[in-house]
Design a protein that fits this description.
PTS_EIN; 8-stranded parallel β-sheet; single chain; 16 strands; 8-stranded mixed β-sheet
Length: about 625
């Protein structure tokens, strides 16, 4: 296996870098963040990366050009390294290739005329900073702005900030001629221990040789976590103190689903690990068989299971899960971390990747849902600079913004209409509160279609359906009227619960009040669902409720037959569906909807199928 290193950087063996510590003989269990399910039993192999020595350094005015030249050289070297890493992809599983390739492309873009490099060069010139100091300062400035954005998608913000920091880390190591981590000495069947792994490090792992991975730092939603899941390596991240407690050669039992690693396990822990390994293998085999089976109830009712897609890098996970399409493609990724707006061609290219990857399965594309809380420099500078007020979630966001700036909506509509020739697509409108908004959007939609046809662009004879997100109480209560203007509904339970209960889950002081099973939320869902069903119009649920197997009986009982969720949740939701009877679900839903006490509703849901839910 080739290591990832620059031409000037020669990695040292990890055992030379590591200071030997005292032998610890006692069993020691450490809890981290579950990232990739599976059980690993093997010996520890610890790997340490040479720390970067890059103290803050000022320069004189006559050194500025030399520093900019150093930066340009580091950029060139970083590009070469990423090119070598990309050639490594061919030996990885297909899912891992599809995960890492878009990320490497994003890294390469940041090594072009990006905000990071422009800012670093400016800091060299105006603040008289050495290249490595300028890169670090600019990267932290950008990352801080990203993380400070008011956005429900905190994992997405952390990923984007991590991308900026990772490129800055690479540039800094090349500027200081610091070697990268070497992983070629990891023995077969070992559990790899490290303080932190980057996505590029993960790309160097051989899933046929590595039994498991555990690190001190990291989280479940970062690119490294996605990569480890794509590789199918049992892993936990964020296990604080792990590197200090483990020694190379220690036996260990790692549980990627529970988020635990037991160092130097005794007989009881070892036996428990072996039993868990056998059980996991049996369960994985069972769920793998489900991928090819339909999501159908015991009485023959079919349920459509689709996946939500945040970024194209998640496509491999959707393929693995056996989703029947994408029920919610969020398009905000197209507008993030860029200073200009993506034009029609750029959007067409991105949608083409997704639609082609789905091989004919339906893709529901939600047009831009931006409120002032999201970090989109291209929009906030000149397009919609005035609406980041004290309540951005209640301001000019979603469809409201797009109708105010119709050129944004026209570009998205045009790109989606053009990609519709390649596969089945639908369009979803966010933040709708009244029928007139849907009417206005449809007028723009049909106008764009006419313009494209006049230009000779081939479009489907029947245009893609135009649907509405039901995510506000206003939309739910006006569902009868909105249904007359829309082709389908998608109930976004996360925002619907937030707006109904006036609770921001990210606010610690009130997060305990957030409850998607609150009777007010359920009644709004019921009202919207029944409005759609009366017109025989498709209706789906695409919030977190859809991915919770315990809530499936209630959702089916309310009349929902299409669920869209995180890809990883699909197998277990399908397993739940295949054990249910629709008549039982309908009776259960009626029982739940009679309740006014949230605690009682939770009790009924928890006890469904035990007999106590009928009392």
């Amino acid at each position: 296996m080739k290591t990832e290193r620059g031409e000037r950087s020669e990695a040292k063996p990890a055992d030379i870098l590591r200071k030997p510590g005292p032998r610890r003989g006692r069993e020691h269990a450490i809890r981290g963040i579950p990232v990739s399910p599976g059980i690993a039993i093997g010996t520890v192999y610890d790997t340490t990366e040479v720390p970067t020595e890059a103290p803050r350094r000022a320069i004189t005015p006559n050194q500025a050009e030399a520093e900019k030249a150093r930066l340009a050289e580091a950029v060139s070297l970083s590009r070469k390294q990423l090119g070598k890493l990309k050639t490594r992809l061919s030996v990885l599983p297909e899912e891992a290739q599809e995960e890492l390739a878009p990320l490497l492309d994003a890294y390469v873009l940041m090594l072009g005329n990006s905000r990071l490099l422009r800012g670093a060069r400016k800091r060299i010139e105006t603040e008289l900073l050495a290249a490595e100091t300028a890169v670090q300062d600019e990267a932290e400035s950008i990352a801080t702005l990203i993380l400070a954005a008011r956005d429900d998608d905190k994992p997405g913000l952390q990923r984007r900030a991590g991308e900026v920091r990772e490129i800055a880390r690479r540039l800094t190591r090349n500027l200081t001629a610091t070697p990268f981590r070497s992983l070629k000495g990891v023995p077969e069947g070992a559990i790899l221990i490290a303080e932190e792994l980057t996505p590029a490090d993960a790309a160097l792992l051989d899933p046929t040789r590595i039994a498991g991975v555990a690190t001190d730092e990291g989280g479940a939603d970062g690119h490294t976590a996605i990569m480890l899941r794509a590789l199918g390596i049992p892993a936990i991240l964020g296990a604080t103190g792990l590197s200090e407690s483990a020694e190379r050669g220690d036996m260990a039992v790692l549980d990627g689903a529970a988020g635990t690693i037991v160092l130097r396990p005794g007989d009881k822990a070892t036996e428990k690990g072996r039993a868990a390994l056998a059980a996991f293998a049996k369960e994985r085999s069972k769920l793998a068989k489900l991928r090819r089976l339909p999501a159908i109830t015991t009485d023959g009712e079919h349920v459509e299971l689709q996946a939500n897609l945040e970024i194209p890098a998640e496509l491999p996970l959707i393929a693995q899960a056996g989703a029947q399409g994408i029920g919610l493609l969020r398009t905000e990724f197209l507008f993030m971390n860029r200073e200009d707006l993506p034009d029609e061609e750029a959007q067409l290219a991105a949608y083409t990747v997704v639609v082609d990857a789905m091989g004919g399965d339906p893709v529901t594309i939600r047009v831009l849902d931006w409120g002032g809380e999201k970090d989109m420099q291209a929009l906030s500078e000149g397009v919609a600079p005035t609406h980041s007020g004290p309540n951005p979630a209640l301001g000019l966001r979603g469809l409201r913004l797009l109708l105010k700036r119709p050129e944004l909506l026209e570009a998205q509509f045009a790109a989606i209409l053009r990609v519709a020739e390649r596969g089945k697509v639908r369009i979803l409108l966010p933040m709708v509160t009244n029928p007139s908004e849907v009417q206005a959007a449809r007028e723009i939609y049909e106008r764009v279609a006419r313009r494209l046809r006049r230009k000779g662009v081939t479009l489907p004879e029947k245009l893609p359906e135009l649907g509405v997100m039901i995510e506000t109480p206003g939309a739910a209560l006006a569902a009868d009227a909105i249904a007359l203007e829309a082709d389908f509904f998608a109930i976004g339970t996360n925002d619907l619960a937030m707006y109904t209960l006036a609770v921001d889950r990210a606010e610690a002081e009130v997060s305990h009040l957030y409850d998607s099973l609150h009777p007010a939320v359920l009644r709004l869902m019921q009202f919207a669902t029944e409005a759609a069903l009366r017109l025989r119009m498709p209706v789906s649920v695409c919030g977190e409720m859809a991915g919770n197997p315990r809530l499936v009986p209630l959702l089916l009982g309310l009349g929902i037959r299409c669920l869209s969720m995180n890809a990883s949740a699909i197998p277990r939701v399908k397993q739940a569906i295949r054990a249910l009877d629709i008549a039982d679900c309908a009776r259960f839903a009626r029982r739940v909807m009679e309740q006014s006490d949230p605690a009682r509703i939770h009790e009924l849901v928890l006890n469904f199928g035990t007999g106590s839910d009928k009392g």
